C-alpha cells in the first residue's frame, strides 16, 4: 500500500465509522462496538505503518485543490504533510484512541447513549488525525473546530447533571474565546506568506537562501500572539486554562482521550509545526515562556490542593502541557513533541486507571478514598498501573516521563547558558527555573495522590470499599497495554531524533541530577507531611499532606487561584450586565415601538368603531354629506378649469 | 316657461325628502320621504323632457317606470317594515342597531391561538 | 312672467309647503295626508308642463294606491292617532344641515346651469297618444322587464311578510292584492 493512501485512510476510517454509527447506532446497537473499535484500531495500525514507512526521511507531501478563495495564490488545498512529528503524533493519537475505545466498551457498557458516544469519539479521533496530518491551515482549522465541538458534546455526555452542562458550555466558550484570534492569526499569516500550506510557510522561513531574497513576516509578533491565543485555549494554558479542570465532568475515557492525550496536545503540536513563525519573534517566545512558567507553577500548586482525583490529573495535564510550551519557548520542538508523546501515554494511563479506581470506590474524592480500606487489593491493576503512571509523571528514572522532561529542561538550560540563535536567554532561564520548581511540586502531588489513595502501612483505615463490579478484563488489558510505553518509551530517546529535527534528546548529567533531586525532595516532603498527618490526629484533620505543605496558599490553590472568580468578574458579570442592559433596552425601548405600532391601529380602530353605531340614518347622513362635498368639489374644479 | 321653476322646485322637493329620510324615526315616514324624493326626480324628468322636446318621450316614459318602481318599492318596503315590527315590536329606525359595533368587542385572540395550535398537526 | 309661470309658482309653493309639513308633522296620519297634497300638486305641475298622461298616472298610482298602502302600513304598525312626540329621531340637526346644504348646492347648480333656458309650451308634448306609441314602440323591452321586476317584487313582498298565524294571513292577502294592483298598472 502506498504510504500516502495509508495516511489518507488513517483519518478517514474513524470518520466513516462515526458516520455509520450515527446513522445506524439506534437501530443496530449490536454493531456499535465493532464499528467503534475496529476502524480505530485499524487506523492505529495504519498510522504505525505510515510511521515506519516514513521513517524520519524527507517529509512526504501530497495535495489536491479543495476550494478557491477568490485569491488565486491562496487556494485551500487538502494537503498532507507526513514528517516525523506528524507520523509519530498520529501514532500516539490513534493508539490512545484505540485504547480508549476498547476501554469504553467496558466502562460505558450499560450506558444508553453509548452509540452516540462512540460515534463522537470516532469523529473526534478523525478530526485530531486530520489536524496532525494536515498541511493546509484551513483544513487544520476544520479539524481543530470539529474537535472543539466533539469535546463540547463529550464533556456534556452526562447532560442530566448541571455540572456537566455548565462544564461543556464553559469548555466550548473558553476554547472559542481563543479560536477567534486564532482564525484571525491564520488569515494574517496566510496573507503575509501567500499560502495556507504549513510546509511552504516553514520552508520560506527556515531556508531563505533557497528562496532567493530573505523572507520575513512583517508582523511576526502580532501573528504569533494571535495564534498563541488559540493555542492557549486549546492546550489549557493560562489564562485560558479554566475550562480543563471543569471538563472532568465528562466520562473518564473522554478525559483520558481528549483532555490528556490528544486534543489539548493539538495546541502544542500546532506550535511545534509552526515553530519558525514563533521563533521569528523574540517577544512571542518570551510571552510563551512566561505563559508556560505561570501555568506550570500555578497548575502544580493547584493540583496539590485538589480533592477530586480527576481534577488533580487535569491540573497536572495543564502543567505538563506547560512543560511542552516551555520547550517550544526555547525553540526546542524535539523535546516538546517527545514530552507530548510520553505524556500522552502516561496521562492516558493515569486517567484510565483513575477511571477504574472511581468505578471501584464509587467516588472520585481523595478524602473519601483515604478512608477506604483495601482499595489496593480491590483494584490491583489500577494500583500498579497508576503507580507506574505517577512515577512517570514525577519524572523518576527510568520511566518515560523522566527522559522527556529531561529533554525539556536540558533544552531550557541550553537556551539559558549558551547563546542560542534567536532564543532569548531570559526565556531559557524562566523555563529552567519554573521547570525545576514544578518538577518538585509535580513529585509532591503525585506522591500525595498515591499516598492518599492507596498507602496504608498500618491498616488504620476503617471504611470498607463499596461493593461494585471491578474492572473488566478489557479495561485491565488496556491499562497494561498503556503501561508498556509509559515504562519503555523513554528508552526511545536515541532513535527519536531520526524522526525529528535531529537534536539531542539524551539526558545531561547536571539537569538530570537537578530535576531528579527536585522530584525526590518533593516526593519526600509530601511523604513526610503525610506521615505526620497520618500519625497525628487523622480522625480530626484527615491525612491530607497538602495543607501542611502549602500552608496559607492552600485555600487559594484549592480554588484554582480564583481563575473562575476572575473570569466571573472580568467577563461573566460584564456580559450579564450587558445582557441585562440589552434586555432592558429591548423591553423598555424597542418593545415600546412595537407596542405603539399595535396600539395606534387599536386606537384608530376604537375611533372608527365609535362611528359604527348601527344607526342607519347616521350612516346615510355621512354618505350624503360626503357625496355633496365631493360633488361641490368636482363642480368647483370643473368650473375652475 | 322658464326652466328654472320646475328645476328649483325639484331641487327643493328633493332636499325636503332628504331631510325626511334622515330625520324621521318611523320607518313608514321614511318611506314617505323617499316617495317625495322620487317625485322630485320625476318632476325633473318631465320638465327636461318637455324642454328638450324629445321625440322618444324618454323623460315621460322613465317617469312612468319610476312611478311603477316606486309602487314596487313601497310594497317591498312595507312588507319589510311589517316583518320588523312583528319580530321587534317597533318600527323606529334608530332602535334597530343590531349591526352596530358594541362598546367592548369580544377579544378574538383565543380563536387565533387555537388555529396556531392546530396548524402544526 | 306668463300666466302659466304664475300658476306654477303658486302650486309649487303649495307642493313645497305640503312636503315640508309631511316631513315635519308630529301626527303620522297627517303626514300621509300632506303627502297626498304634495303629490297631487305635482300632478297639477305635470299638467302645466303639458305632460297629461304622466299627470293622470301620477294621480292614479300615487294618490290611489301608494298613499293608501302607506296608510295601511301605519295602521298595521299600530301608529298612534294624534301627535306623537318622538316622530323625529335624534339625527334631526344633522339631517337639517345636510338637507339645507344639499338644497343650496342643488339650487345653486341648477340656477347657474339653466338661467337662460325656456320651455316652449305652445305645443303639448305629453298627450296619451304619442306617449303610448313611444312606450310600446321604443320602450317595449324595458316595459316588459319592468313587469318582470314587479312580479319579483310581488313574490318578494309575499315571502317577506308571510307568517304562520291566522290573523296575519288577512294582512298578507291585503298586501297581495295591492301588489297585484300595482303590477296591473305596469
Question: If you had to describe this structure to a student in words, what would you say it looks like?
Answer:
The complex is a heterotrimer of chains A (641), B (121) and C (186). Among the domains of chain A are: 269 residues, no CATH class; 69 residues. The radius of gyration of chain A is 31 Å and the shape is globular. With 641 residues, chain A is mostly helical. Chain A is 73% helix and 3% strand. The C terminus of chain B is likely disordered. Chain B is built from four helices and no strands. Helix content of chain B is 72%, strand content 0%. Chain C has seven helices and no strands. In chain C, helix 6 runs antiparallel to helix 7. Chain C is mainly alpha-helical. The chains are: A mainly alpha (641), B mainly alpha (121), C mainly alpha (186). Chain A: Keywords: Membrane, Oxidoreductase, Transmembrane, Transmembrane helix. Chain A: It holds the Pfam family Proton_antipo_M. Chain A: It is found in: Endomembrane system; Membrane.
- From the spread of the alpha carbons, the general shape of chain A counts as globular
SSE ordering of chain C: HHHHHHH
| Major sheet strand order of chain A | 1-2
What is the distance, rounded to the nearest whole angstrom, between the alpha carbons of the first and last residues of chain C? 38 Å
* Uncertain residue segments of chain C: none
What is the 3D shape of chain C?
Answer: globular
Amino acid at each position: 500500500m502506498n504510504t500516502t493512501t495509508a495516511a489518507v485512510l488513517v483519518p478517514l476510517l474513524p470518520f466513516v465509522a462515526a458516520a455509520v454509527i450515527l446513522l445506524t447506532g439506534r437501530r443496530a446497537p449490536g454493531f456499535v462496538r465493532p464499528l467503534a473499535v475496529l476502524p480505530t484500531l485499524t487506523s492505529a495500525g495504519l498510522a504505525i505503518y505510515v510511521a515506519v514507512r516514513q521513517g524520519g526521511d524527507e517529509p512526504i507531501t501530497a495535495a489536491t485543490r479543495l476550494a478557491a478563495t477568490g485569491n488565486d495564490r491562496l487556494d485551500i488545498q487538502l494537503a498532507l504533510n507526513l514528517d516525523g512529528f506528524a507520523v509519530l503524533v498520529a501514532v500516539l493519537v490513534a493508539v490512545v484512541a484505540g485504547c480508549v475505545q476498547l476501554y469504553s466498551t467496558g466502562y460505558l457498557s450499560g450506558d444508553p447513549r453509548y452509540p452516540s458516544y462512540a460515534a463522537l469519539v470516532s469523529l473526534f479521533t478523525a478530526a485530531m488525525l486530520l489536524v496532525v496530518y494536515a498541511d493546509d491551515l484551513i483544513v487544520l482549522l476544520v479539524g481543530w473546530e470539529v474537535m472543539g465541538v466533539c469535546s463540547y458534546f463529550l464533556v456534556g455526555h452526562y447532560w442530566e447533571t448541571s455540572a456537566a452542562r455548565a462544564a461543556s458550555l464553559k469548555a466550548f466558550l473558553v476554547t472559542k474565546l481563543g479560536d477567534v484570534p486564532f482564525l484571525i492569526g491564520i488569515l494574517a499569516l496566510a496573507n503575509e506568506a501567500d499560502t495556507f500550506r504549513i510546509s511552504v510557510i516553514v520552508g520560506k522561513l527556515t531556508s531563505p537562501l533557497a528562496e532567493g531574497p530573505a523572507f520575513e513576516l512583517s508582523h511576526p509578533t502580532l501573528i504569533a500572539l494571535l495564534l498563541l491565543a488559540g493555542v492557549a485555549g486549546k492546550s489549557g494554558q493560562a489564562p485560558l486554562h479554566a475550562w480543563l479542570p471543569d471538563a472532568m465532568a465528562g466520562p473518564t475515557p473522554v478525559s483520558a482521550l481528549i483532555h490528556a492525550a490528544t486534543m489539548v496536545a493539538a495546541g502544542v503540536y500546532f506550535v511545534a509545526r509552526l515553530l519558525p513563525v514563533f521563533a521569528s519573534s523574540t517577544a512571542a517566545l518570551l510571552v510563551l515562556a512566561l505563559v508556560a512558567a505561570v501555568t506550570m507553577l500555578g497548575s502544580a500548586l493547584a493540583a496539590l490542593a485538589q480533592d477530586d482525583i480527576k481534577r488533580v490529573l487535569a491540573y497536572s495535564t495543564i502543567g505538563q502541557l506547560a512543560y511542552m510550551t516551555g520547550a517550544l519557548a526555547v525553540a526546542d520542538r524535539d523535546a516538546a513533541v517527545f514530552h507530548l508523546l510520553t505524556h500522552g501515554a502516561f496521562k492516558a494511563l493515569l486517567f484510565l486507571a483513575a477511571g477504574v479506581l472511581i468505578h471501584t470506590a464509587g467516588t472520585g474524592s481523595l478524602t473519601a478514598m483515604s478512608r477506604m480500606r483495601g482499595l489496593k487489593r480491590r483494584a490491583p491493576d489500577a494500583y500498579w498501573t497508576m503507580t507506574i503512571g505517577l512515577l512517570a509523571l514525577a519524572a523518576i528514572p527510568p520511566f518515560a516521563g523522566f527522559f522527556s522532561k529531561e529533554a525539556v529542561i536540558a533544552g531550557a538550560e541550553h537556551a539559558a547558558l549558551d547563546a542560542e540563535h534567536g532564543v532569548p536567554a531570559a526565556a531559557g532561564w524562566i523555563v529552567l527555573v519554573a521547570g525545576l520548581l514544578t518538577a518538585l511540586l509535580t513529585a509532591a502531588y503525585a506522591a500525595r495522590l498515591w499516598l492518599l489513595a492507596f498507602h496504608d502501612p498500618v491498616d488504620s483505615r476503617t471504611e470498607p470499599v463499596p461493593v461494585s463490579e471491578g474492572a473488566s478484563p478489557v479495561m485491565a488489558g488496556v491499562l497494561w497495554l498503556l503501561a508498556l510505553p509509559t515504562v519503555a518509551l523513554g528508552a526511545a530517546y536515541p532513535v527519536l531524533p531520526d524522526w525529528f529535527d535531529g537534536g539531542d534528546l539524551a539526558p545531561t548529567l547536571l539537569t538530570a541530577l537537578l530535576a531528579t533531586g527536585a522530584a525526590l525532595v518533593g516526593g519526600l516532603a509530601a511523604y513526610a507531611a503525610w506521615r505526620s498527618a497520618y500519625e497525628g490526629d487523622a480522625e480530626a484533620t484527615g491525612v491530607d499532606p497538602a495543607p501542611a505543605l502549602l500552608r496559607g496558599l492552600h485555600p487559594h490553590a484549592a480554588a484554582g487561584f480564583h481563575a473562575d472568580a476572575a473570569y466571573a468578574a472580568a467577563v461573566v458579570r460584564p456580559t450579564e450586565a450587558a445582557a441585562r442592559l440589552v434586555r432592558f433596552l429591548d423591553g423598555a425601548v424597542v418593545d415600546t415601538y412595537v407596542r405603539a405600532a399595535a396600539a395606534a391601529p387599536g386606537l384608530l380602530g376604537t375611533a372608527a368603531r365609535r362611528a359604527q353605531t348601527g344607526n342607519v340614518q347616521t350612516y346615510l347622513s355621512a354618505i350624503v354629506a360626503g357625496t355633496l362635498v365631493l360633488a361641490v368639489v368636482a363642480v368647483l374644479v370643473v368650473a375652475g378649469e | 316657461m322658464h326652466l328654472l321653476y320646475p328645476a328649483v322646485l325639484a331641487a327643493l322637493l328633493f332636499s325636503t325628502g332628504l331631510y325626511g329620510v334622515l330625520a324621521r324615526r318611523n320607518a313608514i315616514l321614511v318611506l314617505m320621504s323617499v316617495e317625495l324624493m322620487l317625485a322630485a326626480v320625476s318632476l325633473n324628468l318631465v320638465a327636461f323632457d318637455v324642454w328638450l322636446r324629445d321625440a322618444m318621450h324618454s323623460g315621460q316614459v322613465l317617469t312612468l317606470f319610476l312611478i311603477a318602481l316606486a309602487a314596487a318599492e313601497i310594497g317591498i318596503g312595507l312588507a319589510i317594515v311589517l316583518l320588523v315590527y312583528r319580530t321587534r315590536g317597533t318600527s323606529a329606525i334608530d332602535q334597530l342597531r343590531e349591526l352596530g359595533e358594541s362598546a367592548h368587542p369580544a377579544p378574538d385572540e383565543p380563536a387565533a391561538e387555537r388555529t396556531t395550535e392546530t396548524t402544526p398537526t | 312672467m306668463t300666466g302659466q309661470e304664475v300658476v306654477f309658482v303658486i302650486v309649487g309653493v303649495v307642493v313645497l309647503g305640503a312636503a315640508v309639513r309631511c316631513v315635519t308633522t308630529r301626527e303620522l296620519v297627517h303626514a300621509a295626508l300632506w303627502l297626498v297634497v304634495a303629490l297631487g300638486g305635482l300632478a297639477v305641475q305635470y299638467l302645466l308642463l303639458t305632460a297629461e298622461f304622466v299627470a293622470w298616472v301620477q294621480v292614479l298610482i300615487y294618490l290611489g294606491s301608494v298613499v293608501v298602502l302607506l296608510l295601511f302600513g301605519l295602521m298595521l304598525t299600530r301608529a298612534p292617532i294624534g301627535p306623537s312626540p318622538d316622530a323625529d329621531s335624534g339625527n334631526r340637526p344633522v339631517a337639517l344641515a345636510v338637507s339645507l346644504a344639499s338644497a343650496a348646492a342643488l339650487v345653486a347648480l341648477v340656477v347657474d346651469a339653466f338661467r337662460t333656458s325656456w320651455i316652449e309650451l305652445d305645443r303639448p308634448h305629453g298627450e296619451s297618444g304619442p306617449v303610448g306609441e313611444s312606450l310600446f314602440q321604443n320602450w317595449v323591452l324595458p316595459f316588459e322587464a319592468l313587469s318582470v321586476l314587479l312580479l319579483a317584487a310581488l313574490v318578494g313582498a309575499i315571502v317577506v311578510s308571510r307568517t304562520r298565524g291566522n290573523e296575519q294571513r288577512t294582512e298578507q292577502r291585503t298586501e297581495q292584492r295591492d301588489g297585484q294592483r300595482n303590477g296591473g298598472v305596469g
